[in-house]
Here is the input.
Amino acid sequence: WLPFYVLAGFYKILGVTTFVSRLPFVLFGFGTVLMVYYFCRSLWPGTRVSLLAAGLLAVSVPFLILSRQCRYYSMAMFFCVLALYAYVAMSNRKRYSALMLFVASTLLFHTQHFYIVPLFAAILLHALIFGRHLLKILLVVTVAVMLVNGPWLIWLAGMQYQSKTMNMAELVDCVRTFSTDIFRFIFPLWLSGVLLIVIIVTWVKARHLPIQGRSFWSSLSLPVFFVVFNIVSLSVMAHVPYFRYIAPSIPLLIILIAVIVYAAGRVHLLLAVLTVVLLFTTSGIEDYYYEITHDYDGPCEGIARYLNEHGNPDDIVAITYGDMVLKFYTKMRIVGGLT
Here is the structure.
């Protein structure tokens, strides 16, 4: 319910327009960029990784596309990163961090409930490996979230995302699709080549690997755990592997890219610069810029214009798909597949 009520508040104050419909979600997108910066600062000392991650996220085409849509995606990204930041703050014994985790995870639940599963799975596994002293307070927070949101949990338990039980082949296919989309649109596979260069050069120069120490693995594993659990849990619960379902993983994958770029910079500045340039030139950002600066009349826009020009406000329109768009842009009664 949360995205709808947030948008209702914006409508009440600013009126009902397309711009206002996008506005709160764009603002949460900006907030996600800031949260990624502070989350990285809590994981790695200094500002270089943090600035790299925030900058790369700000020009990530999948992130930009999802953040300007009038749906829950940017809110889910923001609250996921905020919750992970609160967990790291707990490990650093920051005041009110447990309360922050409770609030962030509860708001995440009411933004899109199934992201609670990968969030707490990642946090609890990370604490089990790297911070067992946090397990007791984490269990308290987890139970508190479950109790406070109990009525919604009971109500949502009746929702069926799948018409039949998923078999292993379908599960594997979902995992494969999500993974393919990640490597195609967010985390290009050629980055593994950059990482291999970093490892080889560091070994030749200093006779040790660039990835040493418990602290490094603790910082790196937290975003990795969330991404893995996000893919697996969505593959089990979701009926189809839509790309938008992995939205909360985008900022965390960008953080991993920033770590690789930073490591490349420690080997040689030119390697880091070439990596960033290649990321930018293969990101599709020029296509995104063209799309938002050139008008395009899609089918839904054409249908809405036709109905407004040739129909009457008291007409009834029946449509299998696209009914939400027609409800917003016409004054007719719309009966459709999503209603």
